[in-house]
Amino acid sequence: MRLKEFSQTEFQCIYTTDTMNDYQENVLEPLREMFQNILAMECRIVESDRLPDYSLRTMDIEVWNEDKWMEICSISKRKDFTKKAVFQTKNKVVEKDLLVLEIAIGLDRLMYNYNIRIKN
Known about the structure:
With about 120 residues, the protein is of the alpha+beta class. Helices cover about 25% and strands about 45% of the residues.
């Protein structure tokens, strides 16, 4: 599918690199289930075939639209956030590096696949 323009919605969660929570891993299955429920079409999670420079790891959610697998969402663990978290304690200032979890959803691709489903 090629469009002259595309619509993408992005959600970003900023967290310290030393967190015990793997935010990316924790959102993958709930997002896959959500898209599968919305579209009523099979969805899967795959490692992205193109890792952007800014990403430590990128996973994609794809939908099977009776013709091919099409990416509808990309979930990246971004490493390019240059600011640091600064915490003030009684005795010192603590700085921590940050990561960004970015969820990018192709709204045009959702609508395209939704229209395929309702036509059938």
